Amino acid sequence: MKVGLFIPCYIDQFYPQVGIATLQLLQKLGCQVEYPQGQTCCGQPMANSGFEHLTHGCNSLFVNHFADYDYIVAPSGSCVLHIKEHLHDPGREQQATNIRSRIYELTEFLTDVLKVSAIPAKFPHKVGLHQSCHGQRGLHLAQMSELVDKPYSKPAHLLGMVEGLELVPLDRTDECCGFGGTFCVTEEAVSVKMGVDRIADHVKHEASVITGTDVSCLMHLEGIINRRNEPLKVMHIAEILNSAY
Known about the structure:
The chain has helices spanning 9-14, 16-28, 44-48, 56-66, 77-86, 93-102, 106-113, 133-138, 154-159, 183-186, 188-204, 215-228, 237-241; strands at 2-5, 32-34, 71-74, 103-105, 126-130, 166-167, 209-212, 233-236. It contains 13 helices and eight strands. It has two domains: 2-113, no CATH class; 126-241, 3-Layer(aba) Sandwich (Rossmann fold). The chain starts with a strand and ends with a helix.
């Protein structure tokens, strides 16, 4: 299958190793992957700030780059959800609609499309999984604790295939980290306190690594970890599944 790799701008600029790990992992699993040159921000920051009417250029560019792929995959639940719910392009609406139905977050793609049953990865560490809000409540990557239903987690399912990895239990498995895009700027104190609480949960259960499906959340947590000198590091799930480190 022909896969278009969508790498969000903050990953490209600050965490390029996550994009590389995503590419290598997909190739290991037999996908023909291309990275369309010239792709830029999907427009989510503007839309979240109330300026969706200014994202037309981003939408048009996205359709230009990704219309011809069988699937579009990205290591970011929030950006994928934005495209799924907000991508429109007047004059090419059918192409935009097709893209909305063919874009997947990485763990969603591995679980639901490739139906991966084994991953040749080794990571002998205690890992805490942060379930990001967009992925959990928007893309349904994991069950929400407020629903009385059978629990599941696509990221946790994949991590369970990694040799030597111990997934630690948490007291509050789906609590927001406080990042929330521009929320961490407009409500800095609340955002930081939420992040401190999430980190404390991982420290309490002796995790050495916090992983997740959204670099934005991990970036927020990493900043707090560094400032407080906590004995933790953050890694995107693609890095672990690819055994990048």
